[in-house]
Structures are given as C-alpha cells and as structure tokens.
Amino acid sequence: MMLAGDSEASLDGGPVGAGLEGSAASEGGLDGVPAGAGVEKALAIAYRHLNRRECSEAEMRVRLGRAAVDPPEAEQAIAILLEQGYLDDERFARLFAQDKRELEQWGSDRIRQALRARGVPSDLVVNALDELPGESELERATAVLRRRFPSPVGDRRERERALGVLLRKGYGSELALDAIAAHTRDAVARGYPDSGDPAQS
Fold first, then answer.
1. Would you say 37 and 61 are in contact if contact means Cβ atoms under 8 Å apart?
2. CA dihedral sign, ordered 58, 63, 67, 73
3. Do residue 144 and residue 121 come from a single domain?
4. pLDDT for residue 111 is more than 80
5. Range with the largest mean pLDDT of 75-89, 99-113, 173-187
6. Which domain holds residue 50?
C-alpha cells in the first residue's frame, strides 16, 4: 500500500493517470458530461497525489478542496477516479489495516480510529478488521511485548512502560494488562527469573 512518504507508484505499477486515451477523463467525463478545465485540473491534482500515496475517497475530497477545486468539479473527478478504480475505500481499508497490523503492530482500536478519521465507512472498517489474518488480539499484544521487553516486566516502572507501549498501539487497557501478565508467564517459562506479580502494583 502506498502510504505517505513511500516512493511514487501506482496500483498497476505505472504512474497513476497514465494512458488516459479512451478513459472517462479524455472522453469528457461520465455519462456524456463534458469534463471542463476544472475537472481536468482536479484529475491532475488527484493523479499526482495518488502517485505518492493511496487515500480514501473522503481524503481525496479534502485534498481537492484544499486545492480550491470547485465542489461540483471535484465530485466529477472523484466519480471518474472511482470508475477507474484509483479510489476504492474497501481496498484502502483492507491494505491500511494489514500494513498497520503487520508493520507497526497496531491494535484493532487504533486501526479502527485511524480508518474512521480518514472517512472510511463503518461497515468497510469492520470488514477490514474481520479480514485480518492470524493471531488473537491478546497473542499480538504479547508478541509486541516480547519484542520490546525480552525479560519479564517486573517492577512498577517497567509495567507502566509496557502498558504505555500497548495503549499507544491501540490495545485496550484490560487486554494490555492481560498481555503483560501473559508475557511475564512466558518469560519465566523460558528461564527468566520471576520478578514479581505483574497484576500487583
């Protein structure tokens, strides 16, 4: 997925907007509606943006608004982008969730909040989270702790640090405490000395 700061790319490996001959943009828009200079400007802005990063439909609407594109022309451009497949909130939500889970170990709460903040409809957010493969939320949170804290988190300060790590990644506080306890049990089982009950302060 193309996130902010990624190198220029497109959905099919070539520049977004390339080869528009015969497309809705070069034919004058959708349903025979002429694409005027404002729509062409909006599409040029959109293609440049999508060459850098994929975005949601709502984010594109905001981007065009900031570029002073008139709302009717922005909507025409967005309709063309949807028809061409360059905007697709379902795909965006799925890839965003996968990237954040696999690359940054985000919890479901943070992924959900981030997608909703980007204007992705709630049903698509739910579907994207449901499609995430693999471990349970507790197992994922425990894996985060194993990477950050190889030995048991025993004293209060270490537990607070571990809790903060999980909360910032979007895991709920109750689940985070369960993960800290599970991590401590696992570490002790691997031969680390038990430095105290993580459930106690």
1. no
2. negative
3. no
4. yes
5. 75-89
6. 24-87
pLDDT of residue 135: 65
Contact 19, 53 (CB under 8 A): no
Residues 101 and 126 in one domain: yes
Residue 196: pLDDT over 80: no
**Residue 113 is assigned to a structural domain of this protein:** yes
Burial class (CB in 10 A: 0-12, 13-18, 19+), 12: exposed
Return all residues near 133 (Cβ < 8 A) that are at least 6 apart.
none
Q: How many domains does the chain have?
A: 3
Does 11 reside within a domain? no
Q: Contacts for 94-101 with beta carbons within 8 Å, 24 or more apart?
A: 94/127, 94/128, 94/131, 95/1, 95/54, 96/1, 96/128, 97/128, 97/129, 97/131, 97/132, 98/1, 98/132, 99/1, 99/3, 101/132, 101/140
Q: Measured between alpha carbons, how far is 201 from 199 in angstroms, rounded to an integer?
A: 7
Q: Hey, what are 157's tokens? A: 């300060």
CA 66, distance to chain mean position in Å, is 22
Residue with tokens 């008139």: 70
Other beta carbons less than 10 A from residue 156's beta carbon: 12
CATH number of the domain that 70 lies in? 1.10.10
